[in-house]
Amino acid sequence: MAERQRPGEVRDAIVAYFEEINADASAAEVCAGVSAKLGRAVPASSVRSYLGLNTPDMFERVGRGRYALANQSARAPKTDTAESAPVAFEFGQASLYQADALDWLRAREPRSIHGVVTDPPYGLVEYTNAQQAKLRAGKGGVWRVPPSFDGHKRAPLPRFTTLSSAELDSLERFFREFGEALLPALVPGAHVVVAANPLVSHLVSYALGRAGLERRGEIVRLVQTMRGGDRPKNAHELYPDVSVMPRSMWEPWLLFRKPVEGTVAQNLAEWGTGGLRRVSDDLPFGDVIRSAPTNRRERTIAAHPSLKPQAFLRQVVRGVLPMEKGVVLDPFAGSGSTLAAAEAVGYQSIGVERDPAYIEVAKSSIKALSELKVQYPTV
């Protein structure tokens, strides 16, 4: 027999979630947090009902789609709405805003973005305030801190294998909302490149497709990391010939496009988009790019757990503007590596980041990363 829901337990779990993070959160984040606390999937409608209807004196709306405990917002760190968010930093042709990505996109002028390259929080949970605090304190949490290898300290990795069914549902909803907010801001034919993970890429791809974007394939980043390949925990001697998961040898970057108007040639003439910039006269843009883990030099410049190398990012960013004109957006800018790549190849770029700590990192890292000389491995 199914366990009966205790009256008020969803409400109490919402309160406990807000008290834990001591910050505002989106309805999707609250739903994931509450489901994790209760150990089962909680309908988003129930959470939204408590946030917006049933208990107006307990929770308050502090921005577009964001909520907090009543009277908590005065002490909780806020994310500026797009209308009030000033440019936090500018360098060359790069502009960085401190704002919530979805808020910023919904307020963005329609048909003003020509390409997107982003490495989003595709586990959602790992970038909550509570998990970021654990990461920065070296306490792990969702972030697994791998051991040193060959004298090198490896970057933390999010544990996507621990995501519950409710958190996976929230992941899909988040990317559906992201796609729906992004689509109007894109010019016709704009390409969108989204970093993913083999464990969750199918959900991300499905959600973005449902939002109205065309799937145009997948860019394979050939890179060997420390993820996977381990023998069974506490039984490695008993099963020496077994790997629990494949050793990671690649990383999927999902490729989408806003539908073109007319033919690709007509769209290129009108908007400068619809295709991908060729590598050279003889070599088209390919869907396999040889890469390597981000080196120590770049990680020292830009302290971010998911930092991608400039040698890879510059190739992808260069490819999304076929006519070498327009604006490249990274709505989850982190420490600004995408903006640095755009600056290095001569493109105008915009980044949006809500975490003030990463904003401060980006203020110095965008310039430093963009000025690095890098080598481009070839397949």
Overview of the molecule:
Helix content is 34%, strand content 19%. It contains twelve helices and 14 strands. The chain has helices at residues 9-21, 27-38, 44-54, 101-107, 129-136, 165-182, 201-210, 264-271, 296-301, 310-319, 337-345, 356-370; strands at residues 25-26, 59-63, 66-69, 87-91, 94-98, 113-118, 143-144, 157-158, 186-195, 214-222, 250-257, 288-290, 327-330, 348-353. Strands 4-5-14-13-6-9-11-10-12 form a nine-stranded mixed beta sheet, sandwiched between helices. The chain has a three-stranded antiparallel beta sheet with strand order 1-3-2. A two-stranded antiparallel sheet has the order 7-8. The longest helix is centred in the middle third of the chain and has 18 residues, at 165-182. It starts with 8 loop residues before the first helix and ends in a 9-residue tail after the last helix.
List keywords for this structure.
globular; 379 residues; single chain; 9-stranded mixed sheet; 3-stranded antiparallel sheet; DNA_methylase_N6_adenine_CS; 14 strands; 19% strand; methyltransferase; alpha/beta
Overview in brief:
The chain has helices at residues 9-21, 27-38, 44-54, 101-107, 129-136, 165-182, 201-210, 264-271, 296-301, 310-319, 337-345, 356-370; strands at residues 25-26, 59-63, 66-69, 87-91, 94-98, 113-118, 143-144, 157-158, 186-195, 214-222, 250-257, 288-290, 327-330, 348-353. By secondary structure, it is of the alpha/beta class. The strands form three sheets. Strands 4-5-14-13-6-9-11-10-12 form a nine-stranded mixed sheet, with helices on both faces. It has a three-stranded antiparallel sheet with strand order 1-3-2. The chain has a two-stranded antiparallel ribbon with strand order 7-8.
